[in-house]
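2.7 Reproducibility. Because tokenized structures are sensitive to small changes in the input, we list the exact sequence used for Cytochrome c oxidase subunit 5A, mitochondrial, including any N-terminal residues retained from the expression construct. No trimming or masking was applied before prediction.
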Amino acid sequence: MLRAAAGQLSQVIRGSFGVTRIAGVQSVRNSSHSTETDVEFDARYEAYFNRADIDAWEARKAMNDLLGMDLVPEPKIVSAGLKACRRLNDYALAIRWLEGVKDSCGPHVNTIWPWMVQEIRPTLTELGVETPEELGYDQPELALKSVFEM
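Resulting structure tokens (single pass, no recycling of outputs):
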């Protein structure tokens, strides 16, 4: 209760003196933006996945970071991620990576995903990895029919 009263009192005092924001804090926060180009970004993630000593946690972290961004990873990054999954002997992670990349295509999945599969097909065949559609993961296994379709 004392904390809430003190917070309200500090707002009243700031308002009466006209203090709204400290300019130094704002400039420090805005100065931390990166000026990395797209080519440097792609090279950084490709080099990260191509590391020989990458472990499962690092691979999952990088994949999760990439899928959390508002972008579709380049095919060379996807291929490097698949090769990292192969070095880790984690087939499930490779399939999950492909599902995440497909999901990141968003509403343009019908145009971007076929192109992506076409670009990474040599890597898929080299590693023996199938796409989620080839595994049947695009169709629900135990789904019930809709009452409107009967």
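The domain at 38-135 is CATH 1.25.40.40 (Serine Threonine Protein Phosphatase 5, Tetratricopeptide repeat).
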